[in-house]
Design goal:
four-stranded antiparallel beta sheet; mainly beta; about 575 residues
Length: about 575
């Protein structure tokens, strides 16, 4: 029997006082065994009321039912987990209000949680990304998966995508045009640069992937040992390599790394750096790197150089009698200058350094060079020949010739015998120029066929490469050269001891010979004794020497035929 002492009142609802006006009396119905005049002495003898919000009371010797005060909580009818709280309305009726704390029981699904949706209990999906199981992720729809819906990531050289069910799709392999996956996107090569025994490829996400020799930190990746597989380095563009250091352009500034013992890194000290360091120079459009010096071409057509200057590499005038690193030793009290302008140059359209020689192409097509071994002197002198009777050449002429061979040009000097130059490139002891006509002329050392002539001899004068027309690009290695033709084919000539001519043999070739296995090539890139060609569809093919990882393979054996790099 409900008693007043057993009732609880709902807060903050107001509760009625225990005092029942006569008009609120309810007679006990006959269905409960009573009648309109059931007598009583105490409330305990009155029948139990049907409604949970009615109270049996003995009033004035008669059993009656009266409404429980408003806000009274029915003691027996509350259902746990139904998101409702029952209460008496003061009229004998039961009412309910939402109770968010009256949560339903949890089920066995780790990706749902019991909630009260106003006054309705239900299992609501947990937020996508919540952990479930041993290593699962809730998909936001109440199911446990392995990934977050709509997420994407790389799976080797492929992209995988997460379905609405939280499951990874089958890998979508990257194409030849875009062979690598980075940050859930396939990326393609935008530029390739080669040094003596190492290379870097920049990709369209701004990243740089390098491989090959790294004994001086020239890969720019913090001193990774000589790599047999590509490694990531800092994102830079316009990379150029020397034998022991490299430079690139970033936001109009040169950044250099590698060996710095002659100031060739341009940071004001004579120390090496495994990572790129900035050079204080702005507005830079192109950089070029030699053995121990570096230069930069600005968008305004000026050239600035830094590094070693014992052979006139910096184009600043008569070189010092002994090797000096830039900056040239300043006068007492004067500021240190790490980068200096090459005087007398204007309207420079392209810059080229190889070894200790620097050449520039003017916007007019004129060519100027300075530094060691200026093979194409304005007044070129032929190598002295023996007399018709077989007598040796004149000793004085030989002496003069040999002196010129080792001479330096400390300031920019025009190569008057060449006009309409479109591109210039240099190897260890020879240079070539591509003219606007598509012809190629070479000069310098030629005993190994480097000049592209059947007659293998040195020449101070630029001579035409035999059988070569329609060249759109030239690239030179130490003692060999290659040309890209307008048809997309490639022809090479010169030394071939490592198969660097790509012909399948190691025989030297004295004239341009096509590489039969290459077609639709977009650009050429040559190292000391290896070569790479980037195809128009994006693949990169390399061949030649491989002992230092130049070909990005696990093998140190030379390759005599081009093979695509397996990224």
């Amino acid at each position: 029997m409900r008693r007043w002492s057993a009732l609880l009142l709902v807060a903050p609802l107001a509760t009625a006082a225990i005092g029942i006006p006569t008009g609120c009396k309810i007679k006990i119905p006959a269905s409960q065994g009573g009648d309109s005049g059931m007598e009583c002495e105490t409330s305990d003898t009155c029948p139990y009321p049907e409604g949970p919000c009615l109270l049996a009371m003995c009033l004035e010797g008669e059993c009656v039912h009266v409404p429980a005060p408003e806000g009274t909580l029915p003691p027996d009818d509350q259902q746990p987990g139904d998101c409702k709280q029952l209460y008496c309305d003061g009229q004998g009726n039961v009412s309910a209000f939402p109770a968010r704390i009256d949560l339903p029981a949890e089920n066995d699904n780790p990706c749902t949680e019991a909630i009260c949706d106003v006054d309705q209990p239900r299992q609501s999906p947990k937020l996508a990304g919540a952990r479930c199981g041993d290593d699962g992720i809730c998909n936001g729809a109440g199911r446990c998966g392995v990934c977050l819906p709509k997420a994407e990531q790389c799976d080797g050289h492929a992209v995988i995508r997460c379905s609405a069910e939280g499951q990874w799709s089958e890998p979508d392999a990257c194409t030849v045009e875009k062979p690598l996956c980075s940050q859930a996107k396939c990326i393609g090569i935008t530029q390739v640069a080669t040094g003596r025994a190492h290379s870097c490829a920049s990709f369209d996400d701004g990243s740089l992937r390098c491989w090959g020799a790294n004994h001086r930190g020239q890969l720019g990746d913090g001193g990774l040992p000589e790599a047999q597989t590509p490694s990531w380095a800092a994102g830079l563009t316009g990379v150029d390599f020397g034998p022991r250091h490299a430079c690139a352009v970033k936001s109009g500034e040169p950044w250099c790394w590698g060996a710095g013992d002659f100031g060739q890194l341009g940071h004001g000290a004579y120390r090496s750096s495994n990572g790129p360091t900035a050079v204080t120079l702005s507005g830079v459009a192109e950089v070029a790197v030699g053995t121990h010096h570096s230069c930069a071409r600005t968008a305004a057509g000026e050239v600035h150089c830094w590094g070693r200057n014992d052979r006139g590499q910096l184009g600043s005038g008569t070189p010092p009698p002994t090797p000096l690193a830039t900056p040239l030793l300043p006068a007492p009290g004067s500021p240190r200058r790490t980068v200096q302008l090459v005087a007398g140059l204007a309207n420079v359209a392209a810059l080229l350094i190889d070894g200790d020689q620097t050449c520039v192409r003017r916007s007019t097509g004129a060519l100027s060079c300075w530094g060691l071994r200026p093979f194409a002197l304005p007044a070129a002198i032929e190598r002295p020949e023996p007399g018709e009777d077989g007598s040796p050449p004149d000793p004085e002429a030989v002496k003069e010739f040999e002196g010129l061979e080792k001479a330096t040009m400390a300031t920019p000097t025009a190569i008057a015998t060449l006009k309409d130059v479109k591109q210039v490139a240099c190897g260890a002891n020879h240079c070539c120029a591509r003219l606007t006509t598509g012809a190629v002329h070479c000069w310098g050392a030629g005993k190994r066929g480097q000049l592209g002539r059947s007659l293998r001899q040195d020449s101070f004068k630029p001579v035409a490469v035999e059988g070569l027309t329609g060249a759109t690009q030239i690239a030179l290695g130490a003692n060999f050269a290659c040309a890209l033709l307008s048809s997309g084919a490639v022809s090479c000539w010169g030394a071939n001891e490592h198969g660097q001519l790509g012909t399948g043999s190691e025989a030297e070739v004295g004239k341009a010979s096509p590489i039969a296995t290459l077609s639709r090539i977009a650009s050429l890139h040559l190292g000391e004794a290896f070569a790479c060609a980037r195809a128009t569809e994006g693949s990169l093919h390399c061949w030649g020497a491989a002992a230092l990882g130049q070909l990005a393979t696990k093998s140190s054996d030379a390759q005599r035929l081009p093979k695509p790099i397996a990224w």
